[in-house]
Amino acid sequence: MAATITILIDSKLSGGAIGQVNKDLTEMDKTARASGGGFTVLGGAAAAALGGVVVQAAQAAAGAVAGFVGDSITAAGGFEAGMNQFAAAAGEGMADAGLATEDFQELFLGLGAKLPVSTLEVQEAAIALVKGGISPATIAAGGLESSLMFATAAGMELAEAAELGVKMLGTFGDANMTAAQQAEFLANAQDVMVRAANASTVNVDMLGDAMLAAGGQARLMGISHEELTIGLGAIVGNFGSAAEAGTSYKNFLTLLQPTTKPAMEAMEELGLYTEETGSAFFDASGAYVGNAAAAELLQNATAGLSAEQQTLAFKTIFGNDAMGAAANYARLGGEGIDAYAEAVGSANGVTASAAATNQGFGFAMENLKGTIESVQIQIGLLLLPTLTSLTTIASTLINAIMGNTAAFAALPGPLQSVVTIAQQVGSV
User: Which of 178, 198, 222, 223 gives 218 a disulfide partner, CB atoms 3.0 to 4.6 angstroms apart?
Assistant: First the structure.
């Protein structure tokens, strides 16, 4: 009769799946013996190997499950803290919009699973938006998702992209806009900035910095966000910094209406000013003629001048801080501005740029991480109430043992008995 190989299984596992495997193998051996022989050495070795693999697999699975649950609790705890921060920043705006924390919890988890960003980053972007004055209703209406996609398309940090969107809305948005209109403005403004950057040699954050420097004056002049984006995008790459470009353009706008006699006379010589009609850069109603028309006026007015004469004229009219913008517009003319505007219209916007970025193995991995994290948080959120309750009880119990009478009174009767026993043992 062939030798029998015994497979030893940990007694702790004998009642479970591993125990059942051992039992099945034993029964198989008995049946084989009854028919004239037990397991062969090779068969026994295979059975032993199978048992070992099953044990190892069970141990690995148990460890993986424990690790996943532990990570879920940690992720859920961080998510819960982020939700508390968002709720605190949103204040009454959430209730005023008829929304609850649970609505944003679902939104954040959904975006974390959908986009190649962590749920924590989603929360940080939402907090940046609401702290910047974007209403919770606007965030829920699409403002948050468009800002996340904008950051991806522009290659910017989420919080930085959110802050830029907030400032653009604050400068060019209408206070009477509905939440849906604000979300639409954000999406459109972000899209044109990405297009403008893709049609030039500068990136979005540089263009954004220039726009922030000039935005207030542009709005005062009746210039729209899109016109400012195109007007600055066409020239910002010719300056040493975004701040320099924005400041030069801002001062350029201010000085289109001459305030000194030398500037007035220089403009009059160039046919850009008359006492009867005033500055040629404003129409009969006093509205700014626009960047393309202004560039055309400057180009035509200085076409016959030498470089020296042009420099003197621009310095007299616009001064050192604004002559850079004037010179760039004179070089481009209306045709140059229009050509750039056409290039902006043809360039990739947020959706196309994000789609081009969000592909390949790296994107797939980031997206998978976001999906797993979202699942972990949802699992962890189911466990947190129980864990929080247990933690509170444990803390109260310890305080009671240490002699805190209020903590002792808060405990149920059985635990008070435990405290009394523990104190008696400790006093022995």
Answer: 223
**Which one, of 364, 388, 369, 401, lies nearest residue 118 by Cα?**
369
Q: For the packed helices 179-198 and 158-172, what is the interaxial angle rounded to 10 degrees? A: 110
CB of 5 within 8 A of CB of 49?
Answer: no
Q: Is the Cβ–Cβ distance between 329 and 294 less than 8 Å?
A: yes
User: What was the pLDDT predicted at 427?
Assistant: 62
CA distances from 77 to 31, 84, 130, 385 (A): 54, 11, 22, 11
Q: At 6, is the pLDDT very low, low, confident or very high (cuts 50, 70, 90)? A: very low
Distance CA(83)–CA(123), nearest Å, equals 7
CA distances from 122 to 114, 145, 163, 393, 398 (A): 11, 9, 14, 33, 38
Assess whether pLDDT exceeds 60 at residue 24: no
In this predicted model, what pLDDT tens digit does every residue of 226-253 receive, in sequence order? 999 999 999 999 999 999 999 999 999 9
Confidence of residue 3 (pLDDT cuts 50, 70, 90): very low
CB 161, CB 170: distance < 8 Å: no
274: helix, coil or strand?
strand
Dist CA 226 CA 189 (whole Å): 7
DSSP string, 401-422: HTT-HHHHHHS-HHHHHHHHHH
Residue 94 to residue 108: CA distance in whole angstroms: 15
Sign of CA dihedral 386, 392, 394, 397: negative
Q: Using pLDDT thresholds of 50, 70 and 90, give the confidence band for residue 46.
A: very low
Full-model pTM = 0.67
How far does Cα 303 stand from its chain's mean position?
48
Q: What is the DSSP string of 189-243?
A: HHHHHHHHHHTSSS-HHHHHHHHHHHHHHHHHTT--HHHHHHHHHTTGGGSSSHH
